Structure prediction request, 379 residues.
Amino acid sequence: MSLTKGDRQMNIEVPAVFPVSYQALEQEAKKLMSKGAYGYVRSAASNEETLRKNTTAFEKWSILPRMLRNVADIDMSVTLGEHTYPYPIFIAPVGMQKLTHEEGELATARAAKTIGVPFIQSTVSSYSIEEVKAATVDSPKWFQLYWSRNEQVSFSMVERAERAGYEAIVVTVDTIMTGWRETDIATQFSPLKEGYGKANYESDPAFMHALGEKTDHESMIQSVLDNIHYPEMNWSHIAALAKRTSLPIYIKGILHPEDVQCAIEAGASGLIVSNHGGRQLDGTVAALDALPAVVKAANQKVPVVFDSGIRRGTDIVKALALGAAAVCIGRPFVYGLGIDGQVGVEKVLENLIEETRITMSLAGIARVKDLNQLKLIRE
Ligand SMILES: Cc1cc2nc3c(=O)[nH]c(=O)nc-3n(C[C@H](O)[C@H](O)[C@H](O)COP(=O)(O)O)c2cc1C
Ligand SMILES: CCCCCCC(=O)C(=O)O
Prediction:
């Protein structure tokens, strides 16, 4: 197979046998991607303590399976708000995917459509909302918003997502500034500065209007950064957005149970428990360890989605058993994309779904809706 462009090392072949485990995916992606690009995806903030804790947290929970419960028909469907999806799996918002593969979000969204998994598109995607929509008409898509200091830009992007038929808005609240990412500082790698994440901005009338005549690359990127860097952000911004859109708003980055009430009062329809894969604040609680208290605080008023650390089907089952309504897949699909574009993402998703199916069967639970009956023991 010929090499695709993107931020890659040249002369390295796509592997004949597609890697299955997360470790193998990471190793292959490392060979194919440039040092800067691979480092950007793999690494996390500060001492990477949260990155490590996110995965080891899963090993502290053990499944207590039930036997002989007729699991011939496994039903993995989930309903969130008005929408039912075939699997409890979403593609997490990941920015700047052209960094990993030339077709970036177009390849990922196509793979998501083929497999039947909703695609969450990042604000800082390499292809615009309209381009992704044109490439994947009639497939479920959500839009992740990085709130802009210029709120007209935020409202404008949300209106574009509405027009494109996206089903929900995800507002990420853990990135009011970039985390302290030592790998990227050492490699001096900034994909935003290189322009990988500007598609939604340069196609946005409110952003371009505010930019005026300074449309050169440097000015544009500086304006993107100035918009996202917004330490003043608070819950009133979510309330303002809730008044402007009829789409459900999911707040991504919740860890503290007391933030659940803040989010609901501001108008959120759902939450995503996440620590951004350890890329923002290091030293936080593992996302999985934050999940039960957030689920309890949500008290079934709003669905609680989960991400940060999902690497395999057993992780998915454990997160769902602890009360998540669905999970988002992050780094595993990014590596699949880096290895073999759309096909690579499809393979990663297929493997995750198959392992989830087998895990549910062997644990004795036939329907995702019943996974709250699965007993987990904290070791
Ligand atoms: C390369 C990369 C880029 C990301 N970009 C975004 C983004 O644009 N918006 C966002 O809300 N989260 C972003 N995330 C965080 C993911 O949505 C998700 O929270 C994280 O990947 C979960 O951790 P995991 O991949 O270790 O499971 C990004 C993650 C990675 C690895
Ligand atoms: C100025 C914030 C840039 C964040 C870009 C994408 C992202 O969320 C990441 O984790 O990387």
Observations:
- The mean pLDDT is 97.
